[in-house]
Structures are given as C-alpha cells and as structure tokens.
Amino acid sequence: MENTLGLEIIEVVEQAAIASSKWMGKGEKDTADHVAVEAMRERMNKIYMRGRIVIGEGERDDAPMLYIGEEVGICAREDAKDFCNPDELVEIDIAVDPCEGTNLVAYGQPGSMAVLAISEKGGLFAAPDFYMKKLAAPPVAKGHVDINKSATENLKIISDCMNRAIEELVVVVMDRSRHKDLITEIRDAGARVRLISDGDVSAAISCAFAGTNIHALMGIGAAPEGVISAAAMRCLGGHFQGQLIYDPAIVKTGLIGESKESNLARLKEMGITDPDRAYNAEELANGETVLFAACGITPGTLMEGVRFFKGGARTQSLVISSQSKTARFVDTVHMFEKPKSIQLK
Fold first, then answer.
1. 196-234 pLDDT tens trace
2. In whole angstroms, what is the distance from residue 236 CA to residue 254 CA?
3. How does the average pLDDT of the chain come out, rounded?
4. Which of 86, 113, 127, 195 is geometrically suited to a Cys-Cys bond with 175, CB 3.0 to 4.6 A?
5. CA of 21: how far to CAs of 14, 205, 245, 336, 337, in Å?
6. Helix or strand (DSSP H, E) at 203
7. Strand, helix or coil for residue 322
C-alpha cells in the first residue's frame, strides 16, 4: 500500500494545506476549513483506489466535511467497473482532518496542519464525532503509563522512564474549562503545562520525537483526531490511549447528540458495546499497514507552514509508515506558474 499510495497521499495533504493557508490570518475559520476539504477531496478522487472515510470532520459543528461513509477515489465512481481491475483494486479506510486547527489558521497562530491516516479496509477504528480522553507519551514510557492512572502517577512513571525530574517534563493540555482540575494536578505534581487552543494531533505526535520538549499529552479532545494521532503513534512506537467521552456534562462545550442516553444508543448502533473501554494505538489503528501524512499549514513544532513566493509555494510534510518503519520529512516546491526564482529555504 505504501508503494502504491505513498507519494499521492503526500500530495493530498499538501493540496489541502496550500488551499487553507491562503486564508491564514483572515479570521474566517469555516472558509479555511472548506477550501481544505474541497482540495483534499479533489486530489483523493484522482487516486486509483476505492477509499472510504471512516473518520471525518465537521459533523460536530456543522462545518464543511468529508463525511463518515463517503467513498473517494477513481474506483469509487459509478462507472468504475469500466476501468478498475478488481484484482488490482486498493480498498482502504481513511481518517481525515483537512484543517486541524481551524482557529489557528484563522488567527495566524502556529500549529495547524492538514492530516490523514490510511489503512486497509477495516484497519482504522470507526466511531462517531464524539470526544475522547487521551494520553500520549514517549516510546520509553509505552505500556508503563496508563490512561486510568492519575496524572500524578503517570508523570512519576514518565519521569522514571526518561530518567528526568518531573520538574523537567512538559505536558500539553487543551485550554478548556473541563481541564481546570487536570491542570492544577499537573502543576502540583511539579511538571510544566503548555496550554494550546487547538491542534492536539501535533502535540500527541511530538511526544514520540526527542527534542520537541513535549513529554505528554493529557486531557479531552476530539475523537477523530484521536484516531489519527493513534495511527501515527503506532508507527512511531509511542504510547497513545483513547477513551470515548459520550456524556455532554463532562465535555462542557457541546457534543453530538442531545443526551448521554442518545449518544450511548448511537455507539451501540455502530457496534461499540463497551463505551468506557480504553483503546491503545494498536486497537485504534489495527490494520496490517498504516500510513500517516501531515502537511504544515502554519509553522509548528514538527513542520514549517506553507511559504508562498511569486509563482509558487513551499511545503513541509511528515509521512510515517508502519510498513517501511520510516518517518519522512518531505520538503516540496510547488510551481504554479513559471517562477522568477525559487527560494531555497
């Protein structure tokens, strides 16, 4: 799958990032999201595959979206039988967030990116657009920390595993009222807190790379981004766990469904019979082959944002593969017309 789709999924996130970045700093998050969605859809529909969106975005806030169940790719067309060879057909499941951090783009803040994860059919956890309690940690702490332990306990474990003082650890937490007690506990334990307004996929993945000065992600964020983060962390060997949150009273900022009871019913309809289960990365992204791709929209910890020059643009992407066991940083120059000059850096 990597050999067939590797380069093309890079182009999918690149096109989404370029489209969205044109709206950077203009205060129009829905437009930045909409153009990213359309660019991602257009490029995916040029790939020789039959793809199914199992994790989409936008359902929770009525934003533009690639919806759950949508089929994409050349072989998803109605006339596909005329030119798609069933023996060569690549059928994949796709998790997407064309503009991870729409507010970050709208207000010109760092850390937004276009992201997706793919696996063979059935290889990604399919869930509605609920919220998810998350725990991400470095590879050395994998299997030692646990989402059911307290933040204090997990910080002590990370400290021991990394041979670092708790005071040297940095924990990323979404800046939300629901995290007031969590933030207090982390600080009381001695660790430092980095609050972010959006974009926890980058924060989760950063835990797997030494030198980012991010040692854990804790708290509740969107479930789709949780599955995408899990796909990347599975490939990188980092620790990731996610537990679905279906009670609006816990989230405090709104949730799909009118009540806890209706959300539980929806989960049951989707075949999720143990709604309180904590899933690890290998369960959220359980396919034989998993690919993750992201392209920076605005500059972040892992990647540069889109940089325009006269006649073109430059992007930086990250592609992670469980098949080749690689994490590739891809620097691309896009020539929209004959450029007068090409910026090297």
1. 999 899 999 999 999 999 999 999 998 889 999 999 999
2. 32
3. 90
4. 195
5. 10, 22, 32, 15, 18
6. helix 200-206
7. coil
Domain holding 158, by residue range, is: 131-284
Distance CA 59, CA 303 (A): 27
Same domain, 279 and 149: yes
What are all long-range contacts of 326-331, with beta carbons under 8 Å and residues at least 24 apart?
327/235, 327/236, 329/303, 330/10
Among the listed residues 7, 23, 12, 11, the one whose alpha carbon sits nearest the alpha carbon of residue 298: 23
Residue 55: strand pairing partners: 95
Residue type, 317: S
Q: Which of 260, 284, 308 is the last residue of a domain?
A: 284
The answer to whether residues 270 and 126 touch, using CB atoms and an 8 Å cutoff, is: yes
Q: What burial class does residue 261 get, using C-beta atoms within 10 Å of its C-beta: 0-12 exposed, 13-18 middle, 19+ buried?
A: exposed
Window from 22-31, 74-83, 240-249, 336-345 with minimum mean pLDDT: 336-345
Question: Which residues have C-beta within 8 Å of that of residue 78, sequence separation ≥ 6?
Answer: none
- Is residue 236 within 8 A of residue 302, CB to CB? The reply is no
For residue 20, what is the domain's CATH number?
A: 3.30.540.10
For 61-120, write each residue's pLDDT tens digit: 444 578 888 899 998 888 888 778 877 777 899 999 999 999 999 999 999 999 999 999
Residue-by-residue DSSP string for 122-136 = T-B----S-EEEEEE
Name residues whose C-beta falls within 8 Å of residue 100's C-beta, 6 or more positions apart in sequence.
Answer: 112, 113, 114, 115, 198, 199, 201, 202, 225, 294
The verdict on 280 and 292 lying in the same domain is no
